[in-house]
Write a structure and sequence with these properties.
Blueprint (H helix, E strand, L loop, with lengths): L3 H4 L6 H5 L3 H13 L8 H13 L5 E2 L5 E6 L3 E8 L26 H21 L5 E7 L9 H6 L9 E11 L3 E3 L2 E2 L3 E10 L3 E2 L9 H19 L7 E9 L5 E2 L2 E10 L2 H19 L5 E10 L3 E2 L1 H15 L4 E3 L18 E9 L19 H16 L5
Parallel strand pairs: 3-4, 3-5, 5-16, 6-15
Antiparallel strand pairs: 1-2, 2-4, 6-16, 7-14, 8-12, 8-13, 9-11, 10-12
């Protein structure tokens, strides 16, 4: 039996097995990009995955609703790998020949690459296992609904995705890292993220007589300014609590105070413990700021996700695999992002790590995620497969 955990320090056997798969995987990714589906609506994507995995002789398990889990190999599970499959409610503006055919929905976060990367790893490992047994099982989770809160990771966990799994790894496209490189970080690599929705109601009236109204437009403004300010004085500033408003709506005329108004935004936090503390404070602070104006407050505080906290050991596995596959200078230190990522839920139960996959074309335009014009370098697909497949093979050596 070949000891793949011993051989994982070199580019063999991954590259020879990947090269014939890449043209098909590239077309698969472009097809997904042209047919994006929103969270928990990824039915076509799920069908395509089940069809291709089954054709490879694997036995994929459909999750309730959408999503797929597939095990490759035999024996104890060495690691799980996770790829998210949903798209965003964003209008595509790339002009690509395989641009979204579903108007108003696009893969503006690179999940089409995440999905195809995991498919490629499953096909590659299945071919290796057919030739000579891996000596362990690699579980691959095609997760729905990452772009919602609290996220589809919880659905996967509830359906035994982590049963028997000692660790889990993932990747996320990063348009600020050059293609051919990966970003890693020990500790928190993303932030906690909550959604805040506030509706105010009160007596409207004429702007010449605000004392006869509950001036909720002014109250909205005070909440927008003072809630972030109060939290910054009640929570350790090193935890990076950030409340930013994305919506404020009220009124229809310049001389009329509206009887209702709405605002919404996010609260993000770099530290897990501070996230819990800020969440407990937020509701009281909003009501205290609004109280002097006599308005009625309806607050919806949607608890989102904790930070993704990378373990040292799993991060080291990814880094070693990346250097072996892509070169000694392939690993760069990535800063902690203020973005949220529901991969964090998996890490509440087991150790693991997420890497950043470089998608930037050297010398080209720098994009950002969740933009309708986000174009990535498609060579990133092969690099992502090589690194995480090699990392998965390395985890076999950790089995007792």
């Amino acid at each position: 039996m070949r000891n793949y955990s011993h051989e994982a320090g070199s580019t063999q056997p991954i590259t020879p097995w990947l090269e014939p798969l890449l043209p098909e995987l590239l077309e698969f990714r472009r097809d997904l990009h042209a047919h994006p589906e929103l969270s928990r609506q990824e039915h076509r994507t799920t069908d395509k995955l089940v069809e291709r995995l089954s054709a490879a002789g694997l036995k994929p398990r459909r999750l309730e609703g959408t999503g797929v889990i597939v095990d490759v190999g035999d024996g104890p599970i060495a690691t799980a790998l996770r790829g998210d499959i949903d798209a965003l409610p964003v209008i595509e503006e790339t002009g690509l020949p395989f641009a979204s055919k579903n108007h108003g929905v696009t893969h503006a976060c690179g999940h089409d690459v995440h999905t195809t990367t995991m498919l490629g790893i499953a096909l590659l490992l299945a071919a290796l296992h057919e030739q000579e047994a891996l000596g362990a099982t690699i579980r691959i989770i095609f997760q729905p609904a990452e772009e919602t809160q609290p996220g589809g990771a919880l659905d996967c966990i509830a359906q035994d995705a982590l049963q028997g799994v000692p660790r889990i790894m993932a990747l996320h496209c990063d348009p600020r890292i050059d293609v051919g490189k990966v970003g890693t970080r020990i500790g928190a690599i993303t932030s906690a993220s909550d959604t805040i929705k506030i509706e105010l109601t009160g007596r409207g009236g004429h702007t010449s007589r605000p004392h006869l109204t509950e001036d909720l437009v002014f109250a909205l403004a005070q909440i927008a300014i003072n809630v972030p300010a109060v939290l910054s004085r009640r929570i350790d500033v090193r935890s990076g609590v950030s409340v930013v408003w994305g919506q404020i709506q009220a009124g229809a005329a310049p001389n009329a105070i509206s009887a209702s108004g709405f605002m919404a935004g996010t609260m993000r936090c770099l530290d897990r413990d501070a996230w819990h503390s800020a969440g407990e404070l937020l509701d009281d602070v909003v009501r205290q700021v609004a109280a002097p104006y006599g308005v009625d407050v309806h607050l919806e505080h949607i608890r989102g996700v904790p930070p993704v906290v990378n373990s040292e050991h799993e991060t080291a596995i990814i880094e070693a695999a990346a250097r072996a596959e892509l070169g000694e200078d392939a690993v760069v230190l990535t800063p902690q992002s203020m973005g949220g990522e529901d991969f964090a839920w998996f890490l509440q139960d087991i150790p693991g790590a997420m890497m950043r996959l470089g998608t930037h074309t050297p010398g080209g335009e720098v994009y950002d995620l969740h933009r309708g014009d986000y174009i990535l370098h498609e060579d990133a697909l092969g690099y992502g497969i090589r690194v995480l497949a090699a990392a998965a093979l390395r985890t076999i050596r950790d089995l007792p």
